[in-house]
C-alpha cells in the first residue's frame, strides 16, 4: 500500500497550517516510502491561502486548493447544529471506522492512522507536537528570528479579526492585557510595547482604552514575521489564538517560558519530551 498517497487536509490560517505541517512531518518519518500530500484549503470562515512559503526543506508536497465560498456568518455559526443522518455522513463514518480516513486531532486518534489510511481530515490541534518539529521549525526560521530579536520590548499578540463576526467565540478582555503589562513593568522596565494583530488599529484602540500606553507601537506585518518578532521579544503576551500558542511553545522550547504568558491552552503547552 506504500504506493498510495496519504492526503492531509487543512483549513485555516498559519496557526492551523503549522499543526497540519507538524502531523505531516511525523507521518513522513513514520512512513518513509509513502507519498504524502499536504492539501491547504482556502475555504472556511474567511478566505485563507498558504502561508508556508518560508519552509524550504520538505520531504512531501504542499498543494493549495481554492474552494472558498463567501457564505454569511450566520450560516457558519449554525453549520454545526441540527446535523441529521445523510448518505454522505454514513460514508464518512464508514471510512473512519475502516481507518481509510482518519482525523488525527488527538494523540489517541493519531495512533489510529494506519499504512492503508488515504486521507486525514481534521484540525490536529490536540495532538502532541514533538520536540523534533520545533527543532525543524527553528532551522527554517532561525536567521529571521535572530535578525528581528529585540529583548527590550514587550510583544502583545491580540487576535480580533473574524472574532468580531463569529458568535461562537469571544475576544480576549483588553483589561487583562493591560493588567499583565503593568505587572511585568513593575518588575522589569522594557523600552517599548509592540502590538501585533489581524486588526491592528482596532486592537490598539481597544488596548489603549483599557489602560495600555498610547506610545505602544502597532506592527502590521506578515504572520510568519509576527511569530519571529514575538519569539525574539523580551516578554510575550498572547491571547486566544493558535498563533499565540505557537509563539509561546516555540519560546518554551527555547527556554523562554518564564517570560511568556498565555491562558486557556494548558494541555497544549510544550513540555520537553
How would you describe this protein?
It is a single chain. With 273 residues, the chain is an alpha/beta fold. It folds into 2 domains: 6-121, no CATH class; 140-268, Rossmann fold, CATH 3.40.50.11350. It is 36% helix and 16% strand. It contains 9 helices and 10 strands. It has a 5-stranded parallel β-sheet. Strands 8-7-6-9-10 form a 5-stranded parallel β-sheet, sandwiched between helices. Strand 1, helix 1 and strand 2 form a beta-alpha-beta unit. Helix 1 crosses helix 9 (242-253).
The low-confidence parts are 75-81
Oligomer: single chain
| CATH class (first level) name of the largest domain | Alpha Beta
Using the 3D structure, state the CATH architecture of the largest domain: 3-Layer(aba) Sandwich
Give the ordered list of helices and strands: EHEEHHEHEHEHEHEHEHE
Enumerate how many helices there are, as a single number. Answer: 9
Quick one: overall form? Answer: globular
Strand arrangement within the widest β-sheet reads 3-2-1-5-4
What is the beta-strand fraction?
15-25%
Q: Can you give the helix content as a percent range?
A: 25-40%
The structural domain count equals 2
First-last Cα distance: 32 Å
Q: How many strands in all?
A: 10
Mean pLDDT: 90
Profile the largest sheet: 5 strands, parallel
Look up the CATH topology of the largest domain.
Answer: Rossmann fold
Q: How many whole angstroms does the radius of gyration measure?
A: 20 Å
Find the structural class using helix and strand composition: alpha/beta
